[in-house]
């Protein structure tokens, strides 16, 4: 509510806090008063980038209008090389205008074929797709158009092995990287 960019996967806090509140409706100080299940506090993007310090960071834009707030934050972190993903395709278009050198990735929950056309239409560098709707046609189309490919959220080692064999160029996004460390 006060224009701060925070790190939060969902529109509300039900999965991470004892109380369900909608993030857009609360100020940062109100969000910080919540009791989170992991005893941590909600971070701003600025604070997360302070921890990371430098390198490549993919920022998943969840809310409408959020892309416009990114230049002010990223200006304070010149050693961060941002890329952007989103299911809100208009936000990717805005991010691309604000950061023309940054890579952008189109997200999709349900349309494994349409996502390739959307990515080409908005000149994206790649796509992010739910692991359950991944298929050989989408994989081939992405290759044909030189699109990078991410699948989310793959936490099972057996399914990851399947991906490694049949979709070797796909980058896997996981909640548990320790399960895949060799």
Mean pLDDT: 94
Radius of gyration: 17 Å
What level of helicity do the residues show?
25-40%
- Helix-strand pattern, N to C? HHEHEHEHEHEHE
- How would you sum up the major sheet? 6 strands, parallel
Q: Total helix count?
A: 7
Number of strands: 6
- Report strand order across the widest sheet: 1-2-3-4-5-6
Distance between the termini: 43 Å
How large a portion of the residues is in β-strands, by DSSP E?
Answer: 15-25%
Question: How would you sum up the global shape?
Answer: globular
Derived from helix and strand composition plus strand pairing, the structural class reads alpha/beta
Query: Which stretches are low in confidence, meaning pLDDT under 50 for 5 or more residues running?
Result: none
Describe the model.
- With 182 residues, this protein is an alpha/beta fold.
- It is 31% helix and 18% strand.
- The protein is built from 7 helices and 6 strands; from the N terminus they run ααβαβαβαβαβαβ.
- The protein has helices at residues 28-32, 45-52, 70-75, 89-98, 114-121, 136-144, 157-166; strands at 55-61, 80-86, 103-108, 126-130, 148-152, 171-172.
- Strands 1-2-3-4-5-6 form a 6-stranded parallel β-sheet.
- β2 (80-86), α4 (89-98) and β3 (103-108) form a beta-alpha-beta unit.
- The protein is globular and about 45 Å long.
- 24% of the residues are buried.
């Amino acid at each position: 509510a006060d224009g701060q960019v925070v790190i939060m996967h969902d529109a509300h806090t039900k999965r991470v806090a004892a109380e369900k509140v909608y993030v857009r409706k609360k100020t940062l100080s109100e969000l910080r008063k919540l009791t989170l299940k992991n005893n941590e506090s909600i971070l701003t993007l600025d604070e997360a980038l302070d921890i990371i310090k430098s390198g490549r960071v993919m920022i998943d834009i969840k809310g409408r209008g959020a892309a416009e707030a990114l230049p002010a934050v990223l200006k304070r972190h010149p050693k961060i090389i941002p890329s952007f993903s989103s299911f809100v395709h208009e936000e990717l278009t805005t991010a691309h205008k604000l950061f023309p050198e940054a890579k952008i990735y189109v997200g999709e929950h349900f349309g494994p074929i349409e996502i390739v056309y959307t990515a080409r239409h908005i000149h994206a560098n790649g796509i992010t797709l739910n692991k359950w709707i991944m298929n050989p046609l989408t994989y081939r189309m992405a290759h044909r158009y030189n699109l990078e490919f991410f699948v989310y959220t793959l936490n099972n080692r057996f399914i990851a092995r399947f991906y490694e064999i049949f979709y070797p160029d796909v980058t896997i996004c996981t909640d548990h990287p320790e399960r895949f460390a060799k």
